[in-house]
Amino acid sequence: MSELAVTERTRHRRMRENGSVRRADLDAVLAAGFVCHLGVVVGGAPMVVPTVYGATADTLYFHGSVASRSLQQAAEAGAAGAAEMCVTVTHVDGLVLARSVFEHSVNYRCAMVYGVPRVLADEEKLEGLRVLSEQCAPGQWDYARRPNRKELAATTLLALDLAEASVKISVGPPDDGDGPDAELGLWAGNVPIRTVFDAPVATPDLADGITLPDHIAALRSV
Amino acid sequence: MSELAVTERTRHRRMRENGSVRRADLDAVLAAGFVCHLGVVVGGAPMVVPTVYGATADTLYFHGSVASRSLQQAAEAGAAGAAEMCVTVTHVDGLVLARSVFEHSVNYRCAMVYGVPRVLADEEKLEGLRVLSEQCAPGQWDYARRPNRKELAATTLLALDLAEASVKISVGPPDDGDGPDAELGLWAGNVPIRTVFDAPVATPDLADGITLPDHIAALRSV
What we know:
- The structure is a homodimer of 222-residue chains.
- Chain A has helices spanning 23-31, 65-77, 122-136, 140-143, 149-153, 214-217, and strands spanning 19-20, 35-42, 45-55, 59-63, 85-97, 105-115, 118-119, 157-161, 164-170, 189-197, 201-202.
- The two termini of chain A are 36 Å apart.
- In chain A, β5 and β6 (105-115) form a beta hairpin.
- Chain A contains 6 helices and 11 strands.
- The interface between A and B is large, with 94 and 94 residues.
């Protein structure tokens, strides 16, 4: 499916020119990060916690003890709606500096995924952990020691279908160059913002003779 | 007040060693960014949207049409709880690569602020916009054209007291160097992550002879 389904909550209300229904845009935004903000309802009030995630073509996997507590409360209360969650992934790409304060904005890419997540077990949990691990630190799943039975049991992993999602992308310079503000003689433009990975730092207690593996050296982006 | 009040929802449940109740830590986390994730409840379900913010010693100001819609719905429904919001500010500082997948984590600083925001008007709205503008792009409030009456009316600005907040900070290397995994001969450490501002890019329609002001050049962090 190359287009995202539009539902009541994924319909773009504001800044519609920034809204995208392209499935490829959703995939790209999700692939570009590894930390999401998870929104749950606890006792009727919202709670937003950052957590790590990994995404495949149809599923978003994420860590979440807060989420599982929320799911449990919802189940006990028999309130189906309370199990609904929203996972938001945002990349801040730049400041947009216009001639007027009012026209200032931020360039960004943002995906919001809605639904009731499933708590994973067994093989699916292991596969979800692999996806999540590979998204955060590609290569570590094959390099580091994998979870044993006890560690797997102590890990909460949830999965959300990528069935209901919305994407917004804002790029480019300010657009107040064709009005009276352009005559003010003020500088306008944008300041790109990037996330960079610096050189890996070995843990102080690393034994002698252990060299930095290529897949970790490759994380460096500067 | 140098310590944050601990309430039912700000009490640290997990990773307590990362929890902070130092007021100075909250201030520092809020000062270090300008994009937050705002959690609201809409029709019983959570919604998490990124938005810009600015903070003073006692107030968090943020943009939010979604928030104001949510407040309006709550008022109409007479449901006080539905007006509750959660504003989360997260800085991702690095990947923590341990010998085992299970011990992998992320270094981060995160602040969560809870409460029912106020919709601002008049002088307070203008002051909030100044705080927000100066946090996003220091110097622009004095340089760019300020909002006129019509623009002010078209802007929704909310304020949340910094009365109920929690902070978590995670730093340093992995801590699995004293167990059997240390004998695996695997590299372990952390990969620092930073957000950088690149060189400002002038808008293509900038008139000749307008130079980049110092306060915008100073944003560059590389």
